[in-house]
Specification:
Blueprint lengths: L2 H19 L14 E5 L7 E3 L2 E3 L1 H13 L3 E5 L2 H9 L5 E6 L2 H4 L2 E9 L1 E6 L9 H5 L6 E4 L5 H13 L3 E4 L2 H9 L5 E5 H9 L6 E5 L6 E8 L5 H16 L2 H7 L4 H7 L1 H9 L1
Parallel strand pairs: 1-4, 1-5, 8-9, 8-10
Antiparallel strand pairs: 2-3, 5-12, 6-12, 7-10, 7-11
Length: 279
């Protein structure tokens, strides 16, 4: 064998040995002690069905979390209201896409991964001057629809309380019911997170409606809740570390970009951008 050939062979052998000795990626991390049931609900681009398959942000996130942690997550679709009750009763291991509340903290560990923010979906018959929830509240003829348990921070809660006191807030059981009633003219506006209303618009629903910002709100963190009566501390720590790795690698933002526009993603994750700029 000539000298150049020997050098090439040595280089190949060195590469193979280096690859064999290199640290394994996060996907090879130790698996959890058992499979976990993840309670999920159909929520716009967050979770939807397509040709019998579950699609959306949540399935994509759980797939990436499984890859990084080595754990197995089994999704169980339930109505959202029942889902939260089952979690608090210790009947499910994990729930996703959740706001942080003291009641939920009492049942498990909150692990944030993204943000949500409330919008208004207005009928085109509503005057163009109504471009926020504050202005909607100032119009006594307008009624707002929302979903039970649809949180959104202090500004949203204040508007909801004012409209409730005036008899101008109607509550629906879920976003499908809210949209059906809104399209039927039961009320003039609906309160929706962007990830939910944009899916309805994409599906050809809410024709004759427009979207405006709710007001001077900030994105609210959402995340997993991992039940501490069902999941061991070691597994909770393992899941939290894997989820944090996904977040730090910008994996969650990339998943959201599959379903939302670049502008919508920038808006939802703007607190992360502001924090990075401050650092």
């Amino acid at each position: 064998m000539c000298a150049p050939s020997r050098r090439r062979l040595a280089a190949v052998i060195a590469f193979v040995v280096a690859a064999a000795l290199a640290p394994l990626p996060a996907v090879a991390a130790a698996a959890c002690e058992r499979k976990f049931t993840v309670g999920v609900a159909e929520l716009g681009w967050g979770l939807y069905r397509e040709r019998g398959e579950l699609r959306g942000v949540v399935p994509d996130l759980l797939a990436e979390l499984a890859r990084r942690s080595g754990c197995t997550f089994v999704m169980e679709v339930r109505p959202r209201a029942r889902l939260v009750a089952d979690y608090q009763a210790g009947a499910v291991d994990i729930i996703t896409s959740s706001y942080r509340t003291p009641e939920r903290d009492g049942a498990g560990q909150f692990m944030p991964y993204a943000y949500t923010e409330m919008d208004l979906v207005l009928a085109d018959t509503v005057p163009k001057a109504v471009d926020s929830a504050e202005r909607l509240a100032a119009e006594p003829s307008l009624v707002l629809g929302s979903v039970r348990g649809n949180y959104g921070g202090e500004i949203v809660a204040e508007v909801f309380n004012r409209l409730t006191a005036a008899g101008r807030l109607e509550l629906a059981s879920d976003f499908e019911n809210l949209t059906t009633r809104l399209e039927a003219g039961r009320f003039s506006a609906g309160a929706y997170p962007a990830i939910i209303h944009s899916k309805f618009f994409s599906d050809g629903r809410l024709r004759g409606f427009r979207v405006v910002r709710f007001g001077q709100t900030q994105p609210d963190p959402i995340g997993l809740y991992v039940n501490h009566s069902r999941v061991t501390p070691a597994d909770r720590e393992h899941i939290a570390a894997a989820l944090q790795a996904v977040v730090k690698a910008d994996g969650v933002r990339k998943i959201y970009r599959r379903y939302l526009t670049a502008e919508e993603v920038r808006r939802l994750f703007r607190l992360d951008a502001q924090g990075a700029a401050a650092r």
